[in-house]
Amino acid sequence: MVQARVGEAYDPSEISTGFQQPRSPTFKHSARSYTESYFLHIHPVYPFLDRVQFERRASDKNLPETLKVDKAWCALYFTVLALGSQFHDEGTFDQGKGKPWKLFQVALGTLPELILPSKRLLNAQAIFALTFSCLSILEMLVTEAVRIATAMDLHICVGSDTTHVQMQRTFWTIYNLEKEFCFLAGRASAIADYDIGSPVPKPPREDLGELNWLLLFVRHSRILSKAYEKLFSISATLNSTAVYLKSIDTIRGDLDGWKDSLPPEMRPGSPFRQRYGDESGGRFLTLKIHFAYHHVLIALSRLTLHVCRPDCIERLAASESELIHSARSVIHLTQNIDLAPYTPTWILGYIPLSALFILFDFVIHNPAHPDTRKNLAFLDIAAGYFTRLEFATDGSLQSSLLAEFAHIARQYVQDFQNGKLPPQDKYFQTQGRSDGDSTGAMPPQSNVSPSSETMTRPDPTLYELPQYEYNDNTSTSNPEGQTGSDFMYLFGNSHTDIFTSESMLSFDPALYESQYLPWE
């Protein structure tokens, strides 16, 4: 029986997920408004679709029949609806709940048929569109989109006609997301930069100004790719300290050059300004630029502190200053983050969480630093942000737990100042004044060698921290526990199998295909 099943041939069109009918009704006129919201908010950032062609096909009276025959178009269409519906206050942070999830499940049901017949542009576009909707299978979807794109030779596509431009735009949009994902995940990219011959086309819209947003993020993605290859790959770990520092300087030069290519009012380091209106997606674009810059700068600064020799006092102090400044900048930018399901998780949680830990670690190791009060204030801001995040998600993301770090840091500093901590022979005292300016730059920690006996840094590991009260409501009898009790799953339950979830197995895409189409 096993041999028979192994040798049996399967037709991908016969694969089904066995969905059942949903309970909530839908309306045909919603499809148009969802599509408009998609092209208004998401398309400027990821311009891989031809809006005129898409809307023409979506409004065709034969759309229901087309959806049954063309599964790639079905996946793309319902993914666009799912993404657009999130901007109508219909999205949720709970996996499998809400109208966007119902629409997304229609598209996801066609996934087996999208993967096998690979050499088709619409398949690559459909799979790439799915990557925005499901964090749980993001890696698989991104990998499949890259595989289809390279199989179609989109990376070497040249030409200026409409078809070739759309193929080029699709490839570079996939390129941006794949490089971004790989750098965040700490894995090598599947796209070889040395084997790309496709030009970067102009953006399809002009209402965002003359700036080529697609080219802007392609350049940043190229920096991410070079940074991983030269600094974080397995081969890079064999480099000497001198080679490491030289590579860091090279990447930092590229990053500064990328920042200088931006309009002055949008450059990281300047006050956050919303040059382009919310309706055009400009707010998110500007916020993404700031976060993308500080994300790389934090990685470079932390690596410098890790590989630099202790006697390189000036470089260590400069890297520490940049690290703290970037962490403060990220926390300051949290006031501009939309606490909504359509906001990317790395902006919503990962980068602010890293900034919180950076400042917390610095305060604990430097309680006598003249900027401690300022750092504690930023920790309070971060605590407020994560508390608001839990409130905005109605408890789906139990991020208020992170507010405890601000309390622990403040209590630790108070105990240090009151002499309640075990005494040390010598405590590190920073020379110089506090940075009172708005740049957040820090003075050097010391003007003497770290080996000097006159100045030593207090080591919190030499004594036990005070036991601060913390209410842990996680039940040990519950194997799943609470989402917020595990930082790995705090901003996305990646271990959840959406293909076997109850919400997925109780959904019938046929009902949505009949109620959302065609446009009226």
From TrEMBL:
Coiled coil: none annotated. GO terms for molecular function: DNA binding; DNA-binding transcription factor activity; zinc ion binding. It is found in: Nucleus. SMART domains: Fungal_trans. Pfam families: Fungal_trans (PF04082). Its main location: nucleus. Residues 138-207 form the Xylanolytic transcriptional activator regulatory domain. Residues 420-460 are annotated as: Disordered. One of its GO terms (biological process) is DNA-templated transcription. The keyword Cell membrane does not apply. It comes from the Eukaryota. This is Xylanolytic transcriptional activator regulatory domain-containing protein. It comes from Coleophoma crateriformis.
